[in-house]
Amino acid sequence: MADGETNLPTIERRLGLQIWGIENMKMVPVPEKAYGTFFEGDCYIILHTKRTSRGTAVDLHYWIGKDSSQDEQGAAAMYVTQLDAALRGNPVQHREVQGHESETFQSYFRNGIIYKKGGVASGFKHVETNMYNIKRLLHVKGKKHVSATEVALSWDSFNKGDVFLLDLGKVLIQWNGPNCSIAEKSRGLALARSIRDSERGGRAQIGIIDNEKDSQDLIKIMNMVLGERRGELRDAIPDTKADELQKANVRLYHVYEKDNDLVVQEIATRPLTQDLLQHEDCYILDQGGFKIYVWRGKASNQEEKKAAFTRAVGFIQAKGYSPSTNIEVINDGAESAMFKQLFQRWTEKDETQGLGKVYTIGKTAKVEQVKFDTTQLHARPELAAEQRMVDDASGDIEVWGIEDLQMQPVNPKTYGQFYGGDCYLVLYTYLRSGRPHYVLYMWQGRHASVDEITACALNAIELDKKHGDEAVQVRVTMGKEPAHFLAIFKGKLIIYEGGTSRAQKSTPEPAIRLFQVRGTNELNTKATEVPARASSLNSNDVFLLATNQVCYLWCGKGCSGDEREMAKMVADIVSRRDKHTILEGQEPAEFWEALGGKAPYASEKRFQEQVTHYQPRLFECSNQTGRFIMTEVVGFCQEDLDEDDVMLLDTWEEIFLWVGKASNTYERNEAIASAKEYLKTHPAGRDMATPIILVKQGCEPLNFTGWFNAWDPYKWSDGKSYEEMKNSLGDTSAISEITV
């Protein structure tokens, strides 16, 4: 699609990446084999299109090299605005500054980004580099997002914490700092191999220095090129990254013109709600100075829309933020997942059932449970993930209560009854491919003491050890029981507000109790005790009112036959008295007396609220510096889980923590605290009772692996470790001969 009035080149509508450089103020396509290499003196335009459940998502970036001219930067910004118009306002637009690229941008270059000195003006681009003339030193940084910058050919450029690649054309020497992690070494090697294979057509040798004493030949070559080394190398330089507290500080500004002056007015801080965005206006959302979003209303005027980037840059200057701050420009109706996450609740106006699963959120939303064919779970792990089910709930259960800070087995006859004054451990065992797998639920009562909650966690660790450290641990807060937890109790899950299941009860049980029963079958039913007052009733449900004489089954107008059947089953557990079924509106006087008199209660029809399909997000958690830092991995896959990581997968209804075999003890022990911190600082004001699920490498359940495309269960046993990749490079003794 070429455009008459503008200088746009023809743009193909296709999936994947397309990159152009700015040359003499024109867009010139970059050859595909050079994708991922950027000249520091230039500006580039990157177009990325991917399939989504709602069609396609288009991202448009302009990238600014640190030595590029103002003119080129202006031209790049102008082209992006024109491209946005040509693509009918669908793309999300980004301004990227070298070394500070967004996570979305970095996700396109899996092997890393290379920054080269020079640019078009210096004529570097047009010289086909002769393999024998190459001599450069690359400083490689990053673990999830790798970038390599060309630095001065000298030992002074080195430090102890990073990977450095000395590129001599036919030979690549990878020098690993003594403080590098395994992941950094493997990412460095992946980059070296990618230079060898794509730039050198496979005709280059790679040598690796992990320990200088064992690599004297390679060190000799390095000294020949870099000169002899004098003195100690510098210590590692810690990355300066925004922590979660800083990112949680979101503020929304209304931006408009008044008498030729630009006015920026703060209108709200977190939690932000969607109704603040009026279609006639443009807004700036400032995420703690870490990232700036500009939202352009459908009905705002053209001039305002065009000025989006300029205004954002002006805003950054006025706030005194770094000029490299990331900017994302968003169109009304085509918002990115990252933007929507900053709001408390984001509803799509026209979303129909057909487009992906629609989650219901909200106090009153009635979720229809679909009975699914459990034999499909193994064939379709994504179903396990969506239904939040590990299996068909037919495994074995064992339950313990915490008494005097120790585990006491619960009588199997009372399995399913949980008291708000207690903590419980529920071990669920199921077979998969003939091997036992374990899920360990830690249920915390609302009125349990801090000591009991701590004891519950400690006993869980002991119980997990007994099962070879293979259990998936799930923290369950009373009232927020996950779907699978309901299913394993087969319709008999009853939650008592207070009290205890222990033998020596200190307080007598109340004479009158009221339970709200929700569920349509054995897999999704739960009864919860509510205050025994008329105001607790709700026309959409069945309630059980148990007194010393009788047990009433009160059926609200909105309840179904299935719900009544399930309530009858629960009634037999809750009360041994006669059962009386009464319909809403036909209550006997004694019913209201037991509840302390009539009172208004919720009776409007329960509505289904449409909420956007939540995109699961994966983060690397690091807590080493005492600050809690998370790095998002966009477009994640199983490869992004490294052995030395603790990763957090957020699927909105639950938080998974994946713990790698080689992760450090501190981060492992801090994992649960990190997840709570994540929920607490989430801009959307998340529910602190969201279940947190601890998953260990190699013992991943289906409801975790289902969020990953094409999960390979053998990867951990067959996957190549760094050492194996290193050994597969073959004999490197030939290297010194080549270089000499």
UniProtKB/TrEMBL annotation:
Keywords: Actin capping, Actin-binding, Calcium, Cytoplasm, Cytoskeleton, Repeat. The keyword Cytoplasm applies. Residues 25-105, 146-215, 268-340, 407-486, 526-592, 628-704 form the Gelsolin-like domain. Pfam families: Gelsolin. The keyword Repeat applies. GO terms for molecular function: actin filament binding; phosphatidylinositol-4,5-bisphosphate binding. One of its GO terms (cellular component) is actin cytoskeleton. It comes from the Eukaryota. InterPro entries: ADF-H/Gelsolin-like_dom_sf, Gelsolin-like_dom, Gelsolin-like_dom_sf, Villin/Gelsolin. It is found in: Cytoplasm, Cytoskeleton. GO terms for biological process: actin filament severing; actin polymerization or depolymerization; barbed-end actin filament capping. Its main location: cytoplasm. Belongs to the villin/gelsolin family. This is VILI protein. It comes from Alectura lathami. The lineage of its organism: Eukaryota, Metazoa, Chordata, Craniata, Vertebrata.
